[in-house]
Design brief:
The strands form two sheets. Strands 14-13-12-11-7-10-9-8-15 form a nine-stranded mixed β-sheet. The protein folds into two domains: about 150 residues, NAD(P)-binding Rossmann-like Domain (Rossmann fold, 3-Layer(aba) Sandwich); about 180 residues, Dihydrodipicolinate Reductase, domain 2 (2-Layer Sandwich), CATH 3.30.360. It is built from twelve helices and 15 strands. Helix 2 links the parallel strand 2 and strand 3. Helix 4 runs parallel beside helix 5, helix 5 packs antiparallel against helix 10 and helix 6 packs across helix 8. It comes from Microbacterium trichothecenolyticum (Aureobacterium trichothecenolyticum).
């Protein structure tokens, strides 16, 4: 493991992949967060890597994964390649003693996700899953209100993440089953993570219906509704789409003593509003205070975990659990039946890993 984890100098981050997430959010977030700096980039094309490095003032550009993980300036690797490459790239980084923040979904199947968790554990490196939406101040506030009992016991919940897939993202997401294309593994897995986090509970069973508007190719779904039954009895729904212009990001949690409404929770923007309704028709607006930039906060918490101060905001184990929900949803839609999470992933398998 790199000695930089125990030093005060900034952690050197490498980014794998030069696509939308890296370009739009993560390079800036890594450089903005306290104690980190992007020092290397990897692309399948050396020319593209060098162009990206020049654009973002990154010292080192690579097209070889072996060369990247051998770079002594690299302490942390952000894996943001297509999803089927997450496992081999994460395992190579962990084997070289590099900590890994992996873009969601952690992998395209459960076994690969478990292998990633185990490899990082055996190598003694920190592993995080980049479910950055947890770090939005609005989401943190909703979780706090639920934990404080503001609405009593959660009974029903609803997450909505719908919109039109931007032109720059209309690449492998449109066509590649192998890479995890489709809205459920791309966005539904985010909703699964948010609902697990807000309710502080795990999913017991899932049922889902998916649809094809024609935006995505073949049998890849571009809209879906999933029902999740949690262990403590809460029933939640997740509504996601790539094909409905006019983005909506919203959370509602209905409890035994009131309801929380949170709206305008767009993943790529700050802001959002939260309202409470308890015992009447009046809405009480909740003051969320100043909002932190959630991408940079995710990086900051990861840096702190590398330095031995707590855990990442979202662990590798979290990534596997939310992936299991998404896979169960796809399986349910294909079969037309309810799917138990125990069929997809047993707790003993996760603990054993």
């Amino acid at each position: 493991m790199s000695d930089a984890a125990n030093e005060t100098k900034p952690l050197g981050w490498a980014v794998i992949g030069t696509g939308w997430m890296t370009r739009t959010h993560m390079v800036r977030a890594i450089n903005k967060a306290s104690g980190s700096k992007v020092v290397a980039v990897l692309s399948s094309s050396q020319e593209r890597a060098e162009e990206f490095a020049k654009e973002f003032d990154i010292p080192n550009a690579y097209s070889s994964l072996d060369d990247l993980v051998a770079d002594p300036a690299v302490d942390v690797v952000f894996v943001s390649s297509t999803n089927e490459l997450h496992k081999p790239q994460t395992l190579a980084a962990a084997s070289a003693g590099k900590h890994v923040l992996c873009e969601k979904p952690l992998s395209t199947n459960i076994q690969d996700g478990l292998d990633i968790v185990e490899a990082c554990r055996e190598s003694g490196v920190v592993l995080g899953t980049n479910h950055y939406r947890r770090l939005k101040t609005t989401i943190q506030t909703v979780r706090r209100l639920i934990a404080e009992g503001a609405i009593g016991r959660p009974i029903l919940a609803r997450a909505t993440s719908t919109g039109w897939l931007s032109e720059e993202q209309q690449t492998w997401r449109l066509t590649s089953v192998e890479a995890g294309g489709g809205v459920v593994l791309d966005i539904g897995v985010h909703d699964a993570d948010l609902l697990r986090y807000l309710l502080d509970d795990e999913v017991d069973e899932v049922s889902a219906a998916t649809g094809h508007s024609g935006l995505l190719k073949g049998e890849l779904e571009d809209y879906a509704v999933t029902t999740l039954r949690f262990r403590n009895g809460t029933i939640a729904t997740s509504t996601v789409s790539f094909c409905t212009p006019g983005s909506i990001g919203a959370i509602e949690v209905m409890g035994s003593e009131g309801t929380i409404f949170a709206r305008d929770l767009l993943a790529d923007k700050l802001g959002g509003e939260i309202y409470l309704r308890r015992g009447g028709l009046d809405l009480e607006k909740v003051d969320i205070g100043s909002e932190e930039e959630h991408y940079a906060e995710a990086v900051h918490q990861f840096n702190e975990a590398v330095r031995g101060n707590g855990a990442p905001a979202v662990t590798g184990e979290d990534g596997v659990q939310s992936l299991a929900v998404a896979i169960a949803a796809l399986r349910s839609a294909e079969r037309g039946t309810v799917v138990k999470l125990s069929e997809v992933l047993t707790e003993s398998a996760l603990v054993a890993s």
